[in-house]
Amino acid sequence: MSDAVLVGIDLVQIREIAASIARFGEHFVRRVFTDGEIEYCRAAAGKEDERFAARFAAKEAAMKVLRPGDVGLDLRHIEVRRMAGGWSELVLHGAAETLARQAGLRSFSVSMSHEGEYATAVVVAMRAGEGG
Hints:
This protein is an alpha+beta fold. It is about 40% helix and about 30% strand. The chain has helices spanning about 15-30, 35-40, 50-65, 95-100, and strands at about 5-15, 80, 90, 105-115, 120-125.
């Protein structure tokens, strides 16, 4: 069997994420995002909502690739890291990392964008083939 590619995509309304942050405050932010994600999102005044929404979409897209089923998965175990060169990488921790390993998933890629009222993300992962 050859390698398989798994793809997850998600689209969110930026205002919905902003409304959750406004309503639930720091509790929501800390329940969904890692310290590094929070620091990056808050580093540019006026762009926080778009950055949080894009990362939320990336986490949801990653869930579609990981397919956790009945396994409770902490969204902070899926982390989007902004690299010095300007691109982002997906880093898995805890249960998310375990799920990926059990499914034979490797080489995750993430792409995010936001425009107008929406933020979107696509996550692609390779699954190693069996027997060849």
